[in-house]
Design brief:
By secondary structure, the chain is mainly alpha-helical. The protein is built from four helices and two strands.
Length: about 140
């Protein structure tokens, strides 16, 4: 019995590939993780990738619900992608703001930031969560 449909598997695959590359590139110089123990940094990195995949699937599902699509299909159409980008942008700001508010990580001076509700929120993760869900779904 196949529990996960082929379209979902394809989106998970692309979300994994794209977010793994993004996370490992940006964390090398935009996050202050170099003094973390190896095990902690490894767990946080793979946890971030898993979280990114869950975010992509959640945004895809929310978009499907808002655009009256009964099934999760990789082809969203123009309206679907417009909704997805809007949801992704809002989610990216909220999620990154929450992470900084909760002091889950900190940025290096190389991270471009936006000041949101008195907290400096990284621009790179905002771009990541705004763009990569749509790219993952499109490539699927």
């Amino acid at each position: 019995m196949n529990v996960i449909s082929e379209p979902v598997k394809k989106v998970i695959f692309w979300a994994f590939i794209l977010n793994t590359i993004w996370e490992f590139v940006q964390c090398g110089f935009l996050y202050g993780m170099w003094d973390w123990p190896f095990l902690k940094a490894t767990v946080w990195m793979w946890g971030a990738v898993l979280g990114d995949i869950i975010i992509v699937l959640g945004l895809w599902r929310a978009t499907s619900m808002l655009t009256s699509s009964v099934h999760l299909e990789p082809h969203l159409g123009r309206k679907g992608y417009f909704v997805l980008f809007g949801l992704s942008f809002a989610a990216s700001i909220f999620l990154e703001w929450a992470a900084i508010f909760l002091n889950l990580w900190e940025y290096t001076s190389a991270m471009p930031v936006l000041n949101i509700f008195s907290y400096e929120v990284g621009l790179s993760p905002i771009v990541q969560i705004t763009v990569l869900p749509a790219l993952s779904i499109y490539l699927a």
